[in-house]
Design goal:
The chain is mainly α. The chain contains 7 helices and no strands.
């Protein structure tokens, strides 16, 4: 792949990522994937399958789905992040203490990032750039 095409693809991805709560959706999906992976671990590692068995697999699957929905449908991010935090907190009971706390923390942090994301916020200016602008003025 030529260098110019690589730069254009990177710029296009950066533009796509900037128009949505990327890190929130990604962390929520990763948290759900981590909980699903700990469910499939050996019986020595898994403390228990959980209440009713199916819920132990259903809630992390919903976490992954909600994370992807946050990424690809950012207009509904408030509903998805609220549903995601409720589902994530539900994994505390159903899925090995939320994937041994790792998936639980990833999911809650991802939902908070998605909930707090503002679509029309101006880009932040670094301190160095503000100092330069003050020096010029």
């Amino acid at each position: 792949m030529p260098e110019r095409a690589r730069r254009e693809a990177r710029a296009a991805f950066r533009d796509w990522r900037g128009r949505r709560p990327f890190w929130g959706g990604l962390l929520l999906a990763l948290g759900g994937a981590e909980i699903l992976l700990t469910e499939k671990a050996s019986l020595k590692v898994v403390m228990h399958i959980g209440m009713q068995g199916l819920a132990g697999y259903l809630l992390p699957t919903l976490m992954v789905l909600l994370g992807l929905l946050i990424l690809f449908n950012p207009a509904q991010r408030l509903f998805y992040s609220l549903a995601g935090v409720l589902v994530t907190l539900g994994t505390w009971l159903t899925s090995n203490l939320g994937g041994f706390f790792i998936g639980l923390l990833l999911g809650v942090v991802g939902c908070c990032l998605a909930f707090g994301w503002l679509p029309d916020q101006e880009a932040r200016v670094s301190r160095r750039q503000r100092r330069r602008e003050r020096a010029r003025a």
